[in-house]
Amino acid sequence: PNAYLTAYRLNKSRESLGSTDMSIAEIAVEVGFCGASYYAETFRKFYGESPSEYRRKGR
């Protein structure tokens, strides 16, 4: 259950990264992470790049 929830949150965050100008920290809190650093670390483990790298590539 925890892995599913994490994957769901990360997927929702990718949508926000691609469609809003919200900061990484705002997105992290919006999708349920306790902080931007933990969110970025988890994002990198799942996708192999940081949220800012993902956003920069404009996916």
Describe the structure.
- The model has no long low-confidence stretch (mean pLDDT 96).
- The protein has a single domain (2-56), classed as Arc Repressor Mutant, subunit A, CATH 1.10.10.
- It has 4 helices and no strands.
- The chain starts with a helix and ends with a helix.
- The chain has helices at 2-19, 24-31, 36-47, 51-56.
- Helix 2 (24-31) packs across helix 3 (36-47).
- The longest helix is centred in the first third of the chain and has 18 residues, at 2-19.
- It has 59 residues and is mostly helical.
Topology:
Blueprint lengths: L1 H18 L4 H8 L4 H12 L3 H6 L3
Number of domains: 1
What's the total number of strands?
A: 0
Q: How many DSSP helices?
A: 4
CATH architecture: Orthogonal Bundle
CATH C-level: Mainly Alpha
Oligomer: single chain
Gyration radius, rounded: 10 Å
Which key terms come to mind for this protein?
59 residues, Arc Repressor Mutant, subunit A, mainly alpha, 4 helices, globular
Please outline what is shown here.
By secondary structure, the chain is mainly α. The protein has 4 helices and no strands.
